[in-house]
Amino acid sequence: MKNIIRLFPLFAGLLIISSCKILTPKDTFIDEPKENIKKNSSSEKKQLEIRFSCGEDGISKYTNDGWVVVKQYSEEKICTWKSVPATKNCKMEKDKGCKITMPDKIGQEKIYLLER
Predict the structure, then answer these.
(1) pLDDT at res. 31
(2) What is the pTM of this model?
(3) How far apart are CA 112 and CA 13, in angstroms?
(4) Other C-beta atoms within 10 Å of 66: how many?
(5) How many CB atoms sit inside 10 A of residue 109's CB?
């Protein structure tokens, strides 16, 4: 047991030394010229996703600014919630532990994918 304790610092040292990476000239990298980066970023199209819920609709604001609708779809969404008693004997004003929250109004959420 004493021999294992004496060899522990040796093994720990070897583990640390073997895990370090030595940099060689092959590992260095060359940055791309900045001109290529600017050309690539300016040619990309801008995309934007907009969501309108429960009867709201403001897409005309974006289409007037030059955005084009690429994709449009809608999903069902809960607009408002209401608290109701869990049982007939529940007094919601006095006992807050006996109320549950349920969906009140369900509407549509419109999702637009815009591109410029």
Answers:
(1) 42
(2) 0.50
(3) 59
(4) 8
(5) 16
